[in-house]
């Protein structure tokens, strides 16, 4: 298995100039811990507002499985030396232009560079699925960014305790909603291809699509 390397930051210094997409620095992005779906929504919104012509090359990717138990490495919340965390779900931003410059990943919860090439991110973050029990296999709901912006809604109720208090404090802006829904996040987290929007795929299909 791949292990986290402390000097990984030096591997991707050229990424900001590799493609046309210009994103804010990691420190300048909207970020709220444990609200990865909204962090990615805000990245999609930024591209739409500032580089709309590149939005078709951008995707929101929900990662989960039937058990809502997915191991990801190189995560800031990881406790061991490889920064392993087990999430119920996670969401990343993908930029995949139709050229030979490769696919970039933006993961605001990762210790890897921002952005980072998928060819670096995938082995470091997902490692080898053959080493995992099937209950931990990851699935990916890949949603074009414009579709994500138009369809995603969350009232943040998943982040409330039974008494109504917050498990984690929410972002400072209003809840995201659409004319059709105020809360459909469970459809995005679900890896049932018969519900929700986008395309559901396994790890091999995801890597093959973007690499």
Automatic annotation (TrEMBL):
Catalytic activity as recorded in UniProt: N-terminal L-glutaminyl-[protein] + H2O = N-terminal L-glutamyl-[protein] + NH4(+)
One Pfam family matching this protein = Nt_Gln_amidase
Q: Could you say which EC number(s) this protein's record lists?
A: 3.5.1.122
The record ties this protein, via InterPro entries, to: N_Gln_amidohydro_ab_roll_sf, NTAQ1, Prot_N_Gln_amidohydro_ab_roll
- Which GO-annotated molecular functions does the record name? protein-N-terminal asparagine amidohydrolase activity; protein-N-terminal glutamine amidohydrolase activity
Domain Protein N-terminal glutamine amidohydrolase alpha beta roll stretches: 31-210
Q: Which GO terms describe its cellular component?
A: cytosol; nucleus
Q: Which UniProt keywords apply?
A: Hydrolase
Q: Which family does it belong to?
A: Belongs to the NTAQ1 family.
Q: How does it assemble?
A: Monomer.
**What does this protein's UniProt record list under function?**
Mediates the side-chain deamidation of N-terminal glutamine residues to glutamate, an important step in N-end rule pathway of protein degradation. Conversion of the resulting N-terminal glutamine to glutamate renders the protein susceptible to arginylation, polyubiquitination and degradation as specified by the N-end rule. Does not act on substrates with internal or C-terminal glutamine and does not act on non-glutamine residues in any position.
Name of the protein in its database record: Protein N-terminal glutamine amidohydrolase
Protein species of origin: Araneus ventricosus (Orbweaver spider)
